[in-house]
Design goal:
Elements (H helix, E strand, L loop, with lengths): L1 H27 L24 H11 L4 E4 L2 H6 L2 H8 L3 E3 L10 H11 L5 E6 L9 H14 L6 H6 L4 H16 L22 H18 L12 H13 L2 E6 L4 H5 L5 H16 L2 E3 L26 H12 L10 E3 L4 H17 L3 H13 L3
Parallel strand pairs: 1-2, 1-3, 3-4, 4-5
Antiparallel strand pairs: 5-6
Length: about 375
């Protein structure tokens, strides 16, 4: 009897502690799972939210499903503003862009969205070069994470417990309270999924642009072609096209306006042919808008702070707004920015890309001279 009372006392104590911890972490809601109201100075700045982006966005969309959704990686989450889309189309949208997510996970994102919004009207799918490269180990890990989080109607119990009853949950809650006191008006995400904090962006700008370009030039110039593009990677896109067609969902695909130097890293190398092959294979699966290459936006000179770019691959909302305005008939789009590519005109589109590159190179821009210096540094010919 005495042992039984002791065990009951211990169990009661444990239950009391767990209940207190759960009440505290749910009240702070450091990840944004529970939709707890944000109180300035208490839990408004969820400073560690980026670490659990898939988890947060899966929960946020489930609470407030919209009739349209943006799917993609960090280029989408930083560059596309749902408010601009709503102004142009009249439909509400949520930005489901997730940094570092491999394209293999995009069908799982779509399935999650349709589970919570069966009458979904449109998916806007933003693609960059990375979506057609062989995924890195880190990217494949994000695919597994996304499948685990998005394959459920809500979230697995283990994930709920992790963000509620663990030392990590308490640490995230404490960091949230500390950050909220320091910056009570700051937020990581807007209600529509836009990334507001961008904590790493200050380190990019000009020096980060050079680093990103060096990475691209090294990858295009020194890795075997088989490591650059795998046609089998488009299976995920075919799955999305079929799912949207079967569900009566409009699918709008676009290739992002990466800076011209992103393309220039492949010029004159076998990788250029691979990039052209990507465009042909993509057109064989679905029509798409192509904003890449050498146009009035993508040839913006590198500078300490650029109007349209964070680095050579991440574009700002100023460029993203032009993308949306071009696709949905808005004003103010520069001539030559964006063209609709189909299986019937893809060869003409590629020929136009080559002509635009030749015209840009003929102007001998400073960025082209930078290219020569970087190629010498990297030993890329």
């Amino acid at each position: 009897m005495q042992y039984r009372r002791h065990n009951q006392w211990v169990l009661g104590l444990v239950a009391s502690v767990l209940t207190t911890v759960a009440a505290f972490t749910v009240a702070v809601d450091a990840v944004g799972l529970w939709g707890t109201p944000a109180i300035a100075g208490f839990n408004s700045y969820k400073v560690n939210q980026h670490r659990y982006e898939v988890t947060y966005k899966a929960a946020a969309y489930a609470r407030r499903p919209t009739s349209a959704v943006f799917i993609g990686t960090s280029r989408v989450k930083y560059g596309l503003d749902p408010a601009t889309y709503t102004r142009l189309t009249g439909r509400e949208a949520y930005n489901m862009g997730v940094g570092g997510l491999a394209a293999d996970a995009f069908p799982a994102v779509l399935a999650h969205v349709r589970r919570h919004r069966p009458d979904l009207e449109e998916v806007v799918l933003g693609l960059g070069h990375q979506e057609f490269l062989r995924p890195t180990a880190a990217a494949r890990a994000r695919v597994a994470e996304a499948a685990r989080h998005l394959g459920w109607g809500w979230l697995p119990f283990a994930d709920l417990a992790r963000h509620t009853l663990t030392v990590t949950a308490l640490s995230d809650a404490a960091a949230t309270i500390k950050a909220s006191r320091r910056a009570p008006d700051a937020r990581v995400y807007a209600a529509d999924g836009r990334d507001l904090s961008q904590p790493w962006i200050a380190s990019l700008e000009l020096s980060g642009t050079y680093r990103a370009y060096r990475y691209g030039a090294r990858r295009y110039g020194q890795e075997p072609i088989g490591q650059i593009y795998d046609p089998g990677q488009l299976a995920w896109l075919r799955a999305m096209v079929e799912a949207c067609r079967a569900g009566g969902v409009r699918l709008t695909v676009f290739v992002a306006p990466g800076h011209a130097l992103e393309y220039e890293g492949a010029w004159g190398l076998p990788a250029w042919a691979e990039l052209e092959r990507v465009k042909r294979d993509l057109a064989a699966v679905t029509p798409y808008w192509d904003f890449s290459g050498y146009n009035a936006v993508t040839t913006e000179p590198l500078a300490a702070r650029m109007r349209h770019y964070l680095d050579v691959t991440h574009y700002r909302p100023a460029a993203g707004d032009l993308v949306l305005q071009r696709m949905y008939g808005g004003p103010g789009v520069p001539p030559g920015f964006g063209r609709l590519v189909t299986a019937a005109n893809v060869e003409a589109s590629i020929a136009q890309l080559r002509a635009e590159r030749a015209a840009w190179a003929a102007r001998d821009p400073a960025d082209l001279r930078l290219l020569g210096q970087l190629r010498q540094e990297l030993g890329v010919r």
